[in-house]
Write a structure and sequence with these properties.
With 336 residues, the protein is an alpha+beta fold. It folds into 4 domains: 3-75, Arc Repressor Mutant, subunit A (Orthogonal Bundle), CATH 1.10.10; 82-130; 139-233, no CATH class; 251-335. The protein is 36% helix and 25% strand. Strands 3, 4, 5, 6, 7 and 8 form a 6-stranded antiparallel sheet that branches. It is elongated, with a radius of gyration of 28 Å.
Length: 336
């Protein structure tokens, strides 16, 4: 990092700081002799103990948190402590939007932000093939283009892809999508773009790791306030709670009956933005009112079918009943 500073006495204070960053922390101090040795080994810099002390005092004057104790000098705080670095590394390990190569490279960069005593506790780094990572190496480029397009309020164009039976990405359709981008979100470890498909006037979501050939267009993006339901802007926490699977479509009010023991799952999925409208202590059941995307609620009700019953709206209740009947038919066909 400081190869150009080798032998340059004007850079001594920065090199002393680098030595403290690399080899000290709250639990590990460096004596003046330790610092002199590391300066020579790592940077080819020779100086005396007085210079070390003077430069550490300069760093203190600049606001660096350095303890000058009897057992030596130690850097007490840094940009990221070990717990924060581990949290960032874990998020990379389990990100489904990065390729294996990108994830390993990013973990390496994050690890170098720690000192020599930091060892990332990543149980699965050597087993990346067992974790889900995208095959699309354009994700980081896509994110950069989308971010700039949102900032400049420009439209974007991209090819949207899907997987074939050979596990290869292929175009979902030959022609590209023209899209008005408004917000990037993360759901279930994947990046989604929230915006408006130019052909319609509703909000929709697209997986960023399925986009290729991304480009920003010179045309201005459609104003968010002109999109149906977005007259007052995008309330992101509310939007995410209502779109638990990132399905597009209408948001509706749903009344469901479930056991009171399902409260943890409800909060995990919908946050605290729902109402408990009735509690029956004798049966241990409750009725809950939730606003949710209609397609997502249909899917969620099937997932929790043994615990949840849709009461309203009747149209959604009938749809779930038909889904269950169709599933039963499929299993009965297999048996016969």
């Amino acid at each position: 990092m400081f190869d150009h500073a080798i032998g340059n006495k004007k850079m001594l204070n920065m090199l002393v700081l680098e030595v403290l960053k690399d080899y000290s922390d709250e639990s590990h101090a460096l004596t003046q002799q330790d610092i002199l040795r590391k300066l020579k080994e790592d940077y080819g810099m020779e100086c005396d103990r007085r210079s070390v002390k003077n430069n550490v005092e300069y760093l203190l004057d600049f606001g660096f948190d350095i303890d000058m104790g009897k057992d030596g000098y130690r850097l007490m705080s840094r940009d990221f402590d070990n717990v924060e670095l581990q949290l960032l590394i874990n998020s990379v390990v389990f990100s489904k939007s990065l390729s294996k190569t990108q994830a390993k490279a990013l973990i390496g960069k994050l690890s170098r932000l720690g000192n020599c005593y930091f060892s990332p506790r990543v149980l699965h780094v050597s087993n990346f093939t067992d974790l889900q990572h995208t095959d699309n190496k354009q994700v980081m480029i896509n994110l950069d283009i989308i971010d700039e397009a949102i900032e400049q309020k420009k439209k974007i164009r991209f090819i949207y892809n899907t997987y074939n039976t050979e596990f290869k990405m292929m175009k979902k359709r030959p022609e590209p999508f023209i899209f008005n981008p408004y917000q990037i979100v993360i759901s279930n470890g994947r990046y989604y773009l929230v915006g408006n498909y130019d052909k319609y006037n509703t909000i929709s979501h697209y997986r960023i790791d399925k986009m290729t050939d991304m480009e920003m267009l010179p045309e201005q993006a459609k104003d968010l306030a002109s999109v149906d339901g977005m007259e007052n802007g995008l309330n992101l926490p509310k939007h995410m709670a209502e779109h638990i699977y990132m399905f597009s479509g209408n948001t509706i009010s749903v009344l469901l009956e479930t056991k009171q023991s399902t409260m943890d799952e409800l909060i995990d999925w919908f946050g605290r933005d729902f109402q408990v409208v009735k509690v029956d202590k004798d049966t241990g059941t409750m009725q809950v009112r939730i606003r949710c995307n209609e397609n997502a609620m249909e899917y969620w009700a099937l997932q929790y079918g043994l615990k949840v019953t849709i009461l309203e709206p009747l149209a959604l209740r009938e749809k779930v009943k038909k889904d269950i009947a169709a599933m039963m038919d499929k299993y009965q066909e297999k048996e016969s």
